[in-house]
Structure formats: C-alpha cells, structure tokens
C-alpha cells in the first residue's frame, strides 16, 4: 500500500477497496491499484497489485504476499534482511516491532506519467480538484486544456506616442450604412490624427473611393502642416491592402501598419473614433426626429446651429413673381455646405433640401419641427450663390 503516485509505473485501475489499519478505526479507501517499482541497494524491486491510498501515513508492504513467492527473512539483533528466490531485495532496521527499510524511486520513474491519465479521467479539472481527492498531480502541459480553455488575454497598448501631426494617422471604413444618405453615400472613411486626436470624416459611395480620398487628404494635410506622413495604421481590408496603397507608401516613404484579422485592438484609435461618430449621429437624428437618410448631414462648429431646428429661407422669386406672397419660406436645418458658408435647409413643402446662404434660424429646442418618419431620399441639394447674399444672423 502506497500513499504516493510516483512509484506506480502504469495507469492505475480505479477501485474502491476499504482498508483498515491499526492506526485508525474508521478505515481508509484505496482509489487505485497498479504496479510499483522501488530502488534499494542499486536493485529494482517490482511489486504488483499495489493499492494507492492517499491518506496512508507511510508505505506498507505485506509479508504474507511475499511469503507466497518463497520469501526468506533473516534477523540479526535490530536489523533484518529479506531474500526472495535467493536474491536479497530489502534490508533495514526493526523499530517498534516494524521492519523499516528506506527506499528510493528510480530516476526513470520520476516523470509522473500517471498524472495525465488521472487528469483525463477526472475530466481535465483544475489543479486544486485532485488535491481534494488526495491525489498529488504536478502541473503538466495539457494540449486539450490549452485549446478548450483558451481565452483572450488583456491587450496592452502598443502604439508609440505621437508628438507631432502626421506622425501617426489611423484610418478605417464604416459601412455599408442602411439606409443610404441623401446623396446616396453608403460608407464613410474615418481619419484620426493620433498626436492631436483630430478626426475627419469623408463620405463614400463605394469602397473603391478610399484611396483617392486618402491621397487627396494626405496632400492637404502635408501642405497645411508642412510635414510629411510618417506612419499609417489600418486594418487588412481590401480597400487598404492593394497595389495603390503599397505604391504610394513606397514612393512617399511612410510606414503602412496593417492590423491582423479579427483584432480591432491593433487599430483601436480609428475604431473608437467610429463609435463616437456613430453615437453622435444617432443623437442628432433622434433629437431632430429626422429620417435616417440624413445621417451624412452633420453640424459643423463654424456657424453652429442646433441640428433639426426651424429655419426661414428668403425666397427671391417672391420679389418679382408675386408681391403678395410672403418672402420667407419655413424649413429645417439639416447641415452645411459650400465650405461651411451656407446652411442646408429641408423645405417642408417640397421635401427637397436646399442650400441657402441667407437663412434665418430659430435656435431653440422647443420650436424643433418633427418630420414624418420616412427614409425616402429627398432630391439633390441646390447650392445658391453666396457672393451677393451673405448669411443672415440667427434670430
């Protein structure tokens, strides 16, 4: 009977044998049975049908079982020698009427080969569970556990700090957006400057327009900052991984970093900017109760007014067609145009957005007009001349 799994050389057969010793009245339970090899005086002793009892205080060998195999016991004062079939197998001292023989386990048996079978039979538990059963199993590399219990590890920020504009630009494409915008745009390109946290959005009808938009924006930014682009960070979408982007990177000398698949953390700046842009767009659409097709019409900081507020357009036709018609026509502010010098007004009567440069706006939430909930795309914008008719101040 052994209290350790290390001496066992093969997989144990599960058993539930009740054993009573002189040290305890309640008895002990053997969890397995197998073959044991021990080393004594440079000789290996093989014992079969050995019981594994985790709660046993010390290992015990039954002399009755050895007597069946022609065991000879020789005693000299306080020492003894056991000879089995003419070969000495054990020797030691007699202490408290017990024959005690210190033995060691052969080095080749110290691999703990039985840990893995027990681990598999118990259903790949954690290391604490075998200890509750009295099984001391060392931690082993289990491929099944690693593949079945795999989890995402915390992602550590890896981007180098950008101190100047254009040191690091992050880009991403969002879409297709349903429904399409008033101008039939289905995508938008997010451009994020890491140094200044400046965000820029470009509307796209197709993903094929990404390279042309980026190339044009790159020229404008480099001209304004008097600096060149150092690093571009994108994902591995087909709109970024193509010959045009590769050739531009080689010609201009900047580094194009492409995030691995299914890892938005590697392009986190652009992804976070996408969330912010989409959330703000939803806020404005819900606030003004406008159709979803107006998602591409966003307010600008320059000459900012409340998105969806009531507005009055001065109608030039009334000056020469009818003297009795009111010159003002009501509408709703839905955006800006002409490099932010004109307001884009949705006229209720025609449901056609018109861009007016001489518009009166009523900037108050209480007077916001609610349109019907429809996603039908209005007609194209009409841009009026701004040279002779400057914008009117807000009411």
TrEMBL record:
Coiled coil: none annotated. GO terms for biological process: DNA integration; DNA recombination; proteolysis; transposition. GO terms for cellular component: nucleus. The keyword Hydrolase applies. Residues 161-298 form the Integrase catalytic domain. It holds the Pfam family Pol_BBD. It comes from the Eukaryota. It catalyses: DNA(n) + a 2'-deoxyribonucleoside 5'-triphosphate = DNA(n+1) + diphosphate. SUPFAM superfamilies: Ribonuclease H-like. GO terms for molecular function: ATP binding; DNA-directed DNA polymerase activity; endonuclease activity; metal ion binding; peptidase activity; RNA binding; RNA-directed DNA polymerase activity. Keywords: ATP-binding, DNA integration, DNA recombination, DNA-directed DNA polymerase, Endonuclease, Hydrolase, Magnesium, Metal-binding, Nuclease, Nucleotide-binding, Nucleotidyltransferase, Protease, RNA-binding, RNA-directed DNA polymerase, Transferase, Transposition, Viral release from host cell, Virion maturation. InterPro entries: Integrase_cat-core, PolX-like_BBD, Retrotran_Ty1/copia-like, RNaseH-like_sf, RNaseH_sf. The aspartyl protease (PR) mediates the proteolytic cleavages of the Gag and Gag-Pol polyproteins after assembly of the VLP. This is Integrase catalytic domain-containing protein. The lineage of its organism: Eukaryota, Fungi, Dikarya, Basidiomycota, Pucciniomycotina.
């Amino acid at each position: 009977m052994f209290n350790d799994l290390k001496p066992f050389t093969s997989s144990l057969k599960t058993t539930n044998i009740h054993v009573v010793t002189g040290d305890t009245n309640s008895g002990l339970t053997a969890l397995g049975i197998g073959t044991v090899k021990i080393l004594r005086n440079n000789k290996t002793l093989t014992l079969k049908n050995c019981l594994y009892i985790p709660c046993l205080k010390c290992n015990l060998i039954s002399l009755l079982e050895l007597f069946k195999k022609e065991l000879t016991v020789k005693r000299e004062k306080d020492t003894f020698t056991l000879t089995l079939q003419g070969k000495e197998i054990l020797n030691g001292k007699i202490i408290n009427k017990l024959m005690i023989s210190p033995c060691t386990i052969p080095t080749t048996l110290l691999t703990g080969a039985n840990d893995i079978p027990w681990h598999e039979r118990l259903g790949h538990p954690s290391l604490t569970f075998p200890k509750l059963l009295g099984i001391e199993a060392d931690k082993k590399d289990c491929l099944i556990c690693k593949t079945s219990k795999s989890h995402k590890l915390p992602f550590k920020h890896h981007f180098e700090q950008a101190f100047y504009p254009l040191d690091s630009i992050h880009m991403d494409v969002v879409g297709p957006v349903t429904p399409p915008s008033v101008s039939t745009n289905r995508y938008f390109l997010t451009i994020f400057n890491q140094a200044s946290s400046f965000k820029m959005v470009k509307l796209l009808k197709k993903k094929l327009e990404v390279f042309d938009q980026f190339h044009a924006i790159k020229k404008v930014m480099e001209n304004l900052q008097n600096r060149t682009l150092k690093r571009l960070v994108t994902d591995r979408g087909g709109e970024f991984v193509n010959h045009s982007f590769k050739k531009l990177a080689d010609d201009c000398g900047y580094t194009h970093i492409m995030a691995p698949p299914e890892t938005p953390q590697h392009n986190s700046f652009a992804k976070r900017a996408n969330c912010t842009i989409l959330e703000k767009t939803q806020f404005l659409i819900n606030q003004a109760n406008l159709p979803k097709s107006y998602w591409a019409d966003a307010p600008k900081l320059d000459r900012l007014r409340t998105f969806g507020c009531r507005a009055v357009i001065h109608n030039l036709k009334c000056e020469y067609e009818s003297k009795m018609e009111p010159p003002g026509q009501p509408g709703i502010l839905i955006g800006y145009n002409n490099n932010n010098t004109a307001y884009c007004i949705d006229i209720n009567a025609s449901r056609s957005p018109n861009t007016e440069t001489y518009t009166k706006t009523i900037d108050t939430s209480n007077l916001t007009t609610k349109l019907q909930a429809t996603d039908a795309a209005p007609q194209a914008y009409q841009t009026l001349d701004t040279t002779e008719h400057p914008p009117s101040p807000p009411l």
